[in-house]
Amino acid sequence: MPIADITIIPIGTETPSVSSYVAEIQKVLQQNEGKVKYQLTPMSTLIEGELSDLFDVIQQLHEVPFTNGIQRVATNIRIDDRRDKKSTMVGKLQAVEEQLNRS
């Protein structure tokens, strides 16, 4: 299952804070919960799902700042698409924890 790390940067906001935009993005993710799983982090949002669903949801997320009056948006996307075995956000964390417990 592909996992995407996405950061959406609204350019030209009135203040340095972007938490209101992040909150609006999380609302869009909540509306897509059947399509993708997601996890907010302090610096980005992780989403997992079928690749076509990821691209659909990413496009929706990219539009959020525009619908809130921003005229320029930079979106960074990093996708981990492992095809030799099933991979999930939870599974990746568990693999690291197992390695830590071996030490």
Automatic annotation (TrEMBL):
GO CC annotations? cytosol
Q: Name one Pfam family in it.
A: Thiamine_BP
InterPro entries for this protein: MTH1187/YkoF-like, Thiamine_BP, UPF0045_domain
Residue stretches making up the Thiamine-binding protein domain: 4-97
Gene3D superfamilies on file = 3.30.70.930
Similarity comment: family membership: Belongs to the UPF0045 family.
- Annotated protein name in UniProt: Thiamine-binding protein domain-containing protein
Species name: Fictibacillus arsenicus
